[in-house]
Write a structure and sequence with these properties.
Elements: H1 15-47, H2 53-56, H3 59-88, E1 95-102, E2 105-110, E3 117-120, E4 142-145, E5 150-156, E6 161-165, E7 170-174, E8 180-184, E9 190-196, E10 208-214, H4 216-229
Parallel strand pairs: 1-5, 4-10
Antiparallel strand pairs: 1-2, 2-3, 5-8, 6-7, 6-9, 9-10
Helix pairs in contact: 1-3
Length: 230
């Protein structure tokens, strides 16, 4: 999760987020090189009193500064399109989970099970245990098996919400009357935090998302306990 004074992204916990981080670094390097070149040209023009007559009217320079930006855009667009298609890929998911946004909490339904569903409310500050995070902990976590394709169906009951978990590279709008879907694979066990990323009312900041990734055996034990309680 994020920590104070953090400048970069959170550590990637899914293959898609790793690709997004690599694309970010790739694009940032291009922006840095362009900025350096422009700064150098500005300083050179301001600091010298000499004029090069070949720069005032040069067909070659005009060709270069027309073609070069097009090449740079291609270098950015091709990796970007690749990642966009990767994010839309949903191949043979092992589990499908429906996330339903309410004012102001989330409900989860494990559609592969007959009666496995629960509401997830934020834990109030006075009820937190030592080591838990304020405004991020919930009374029920969304538990998923690690290294398994998970399909998320996301919608809302009342107003616009947004189901977002930065470490997984996921941000999907929850729209009433519309069923959006996305997918992810968590690479390692852990607890990953997110929040509603769409201003949805007075308590918008109080509907966190907690995803817990566990080995498959532990997930089966957890699902059996949840089914017994229901």
């Amino acid at each position: 999760m994020a920590h104070p004074s953090q400048l970069g992204f959170q550590d990637a916990a899914s293959p898609v987020m790793e690709e997004l981080l690599h694309f970010h670094d790739h694009t940032l390097m291009i922006v840095f090189l362009i900025s350096s070149l422009v700064l150098y040209i500005i300083l050179a023009m301001v600091s010298t009193k000499l004029t090069n007559k070949y720069i005032l009217d040069s067909q070659e320079i005009e060709i270069v500064w027309t073609i070069l930006p097009a090449v740079i855009l291609i270098l950015i667009a091709l990796p970007s399109l690749r990642i966009l298609y990767l994010m839309d890929e949903i191949n043979d998911p092992h589990i499908t989970i429906k996330a339903l946004g309410h004012q102001w909490y989330w409900s989860y339904e494990y559609t592969d099970y007959e009666n496995l569903e629960f509401d997830s409310y934020m834990i109030q500050t006075e009820d937190l245990n030592p080591g838990q995070f304020r405004l991020l902990e919930t009374d029920h976590r969304m538990v998923v098996p690690m290294e398994s394709p998970i399909r998320m169906l996301i919608t809302a009951e009342d107003v616009l919400h947004s189901w977002a978990v930065p470490a997984l590279g996921i941000k999907m709008d929850a729209v009433p009357g519309r069923l959006n879907q996305t997918a992810f694979i968590i690479s390692r066990p852990g607890i990953y935090y997110g929040q509603c990323s769409e201003i949805c009312g007075a308590n918008h900041t109080f509907m966190p998302i907690v995803v817990e990734s566990v080995p498959l055996e532990h997930f089966e034990n957890w699902s059996s306990l949840m089914l017994e309680e229901s």
